[in-house]
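stuck on this:

***
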Amino acid sequence: MKAFAGYLAAWFRNESAGRLILTTLLVTTLIILNYTVGIERRLFLPGPAVLSVPGFYFFYLMVLLAAWAIQLGGPGSDPVVPAEARLPLLLVLLLAPLYFACKMVHWDLSFLVPGGSGGWHYPWNRYIPLVAQWPAKLLLLGVCLAIWRAVWRKGEDESGGEWSFGFTTKGFRAGPYLAILAMLVPLIALASTQHDFLRAYPKLRSIAFMDSLNAMNSTGTLHGHAHPIWPWRLLYELSYGLDFVTIELFFRGWLVVGLSRWLGPKVILPMAAFYCSIHFGKPLGECISSFAGGLALGVLAWRTRSILGGLMVHLGIAWMMEIGGWLGNGWY
């Protein structure tokens, strides 16, 4: 834990105060706009989900461009991007917002469910496409990163973790991350008493239809579509956890570990600003804390060259929030 604190202190000492302040002001302005006029809400258009992709794309692109403009042109910055870094940075600026814009919308995966008279019926024709969303989005990211690796690796080794995108145990120690999770327990418990939090969590409520009463068992007791219900809840939570694998691999794996090969610690602030912007549909406290959390996890990923610790923290927080939402809503 002491080493981790040292990593963060060293980054703050070496990072320009002007760039940090300007990036924080950018994020603060966007948060105020979102929670007053509703940026994220307005990006979701009526009709097919694909119609919302261009809006999310240009919004995320503007956030990244603004954050990188501060990083490269702000106080104490060197505006010259090394020649070998220009193409990778340009591709990240163009492709990273596109991927996440596609990730933000609902994917119609109903084709996965067999149709016809012998096909699956309600609730399975609703449950399967819902649970398949997160593995499908992780698979798409994996394909994108495999292409990136094939283009840029050029026979170099993985000693710095760039080509595994931080999915390595080298430099990883679980103890400090468990301590971070322990410190977050009281904060999540407090959040679990707030109305905006309890309206958003647990995400498990989205499969409440699986437990709706529809039949009577041999004892004369009504039960839901799925009986017992717990395996399907567990499968949902495991699939939900894959979303955080995607997020860590995308933000800390690609935008920090992968891109820092060319740009070093400059990648951290733009990543944190982008990371905060994807939380605009979440409770205000969660959105605000995501900027600080993104910075901390970005620094740790950059120094350790591993995202496993961040993944542990992210999954731990996600599932603790599910438990907090469950208990806070009295689902026991």
About this structure: The chain has 13 helices and two strands.
